[in-house]
């Protein structure tokens, strides 16, 4: 065991040096090293879920426009649990119809001749509606009763006269007034743009 004294001696030397350094230089500790990344990710993948705020991504590529809306369900429905009452089911079904018409989310210049050729709506809430249709009287109160749920809507347009696409207006604020702010990310031939839109500032310039 000849090695042990060397290690012990080394430790003592380090400790003595550390104490010396500390007393000599005062507040020398670097607290940045102790900043672990606590509290931001609780594993529910809803980090950006803030009621009143929605995300809108738009890509304009030639004659094609793809629009993706991601929003807390609360902005659209006024609730986020899986609907079981007749009133909540009716609210969710009406919202699906409203969202299916892209004009209720974004309105493009008529001159551009854009046709909506694809709509996809996704939400655990909408999935639950289909289940309640399938099993009409099977109204279970699931685990997600009190969860935060999102709604996403994808739209694809093809335009006959894309040169006329100078701007678009976000009509979401009017259709769903609980939406206060839209965080926009747009990629257009003129580049990438981002910003915040509101009911009084709802125009996207391409
Ligand atoms: Zn929520």
Could you explain how this protein is built, in words?
It is built from 5 helices and 9 strands. A hairpin with a 2-residue loop joins strand 1 (53-61) and strand 2. It is globular, with a radius of gyration of 27 Å. With 206 residues, it is of the alpha+beta class. Bound molecules: zinc ion.
| Average residue-wise pLDDT | 81
Helix proportion range: 25-40%
Which term fits the overall shape? globular
Number of domains: 1
Protein structure class: alpha+beta
Series of secondary-structure elements, N-terminal to C-terminal: HEEHHEEHEEHEEE
In the predicted model, the low-confidence regions spanning at least 5 consecutive residues are: 1-46
Strand line-up across the major sheet: 4-5-2-1-7-8
Number of helices: 5
Oligomer: single chain
How many beta strands in the DSSP annotation?
9
Q: Provide the list of bound ligands, each named once.
A: zinc ion
What is the CA–CA distance across the termini? 77 Å
Report the sheet-strand fraction.
25-35%
Which terms would index this structure?
206 residues, alpha+beta, six-stranded mixed sheet, three-stranded antiparallel sheet, disordered N terminus, binds zinc ion
Secondary structure topology:
Elements: H1 3-25, E1 53-61, E2 64-72, H2 73-77, H3 86-100, E3 106-107, E4 114-122, H4 124-134, E5 150-159, E6 167-170, H5 172-175, E7 181-188, E8 191-197, E9 203-205
Parallel strand pairs: 1-7
Antiparallel strand pairs: 1-2, 2-5, 3-6, 4-5, 6-9, 7-8
The structure holds zinc ion.
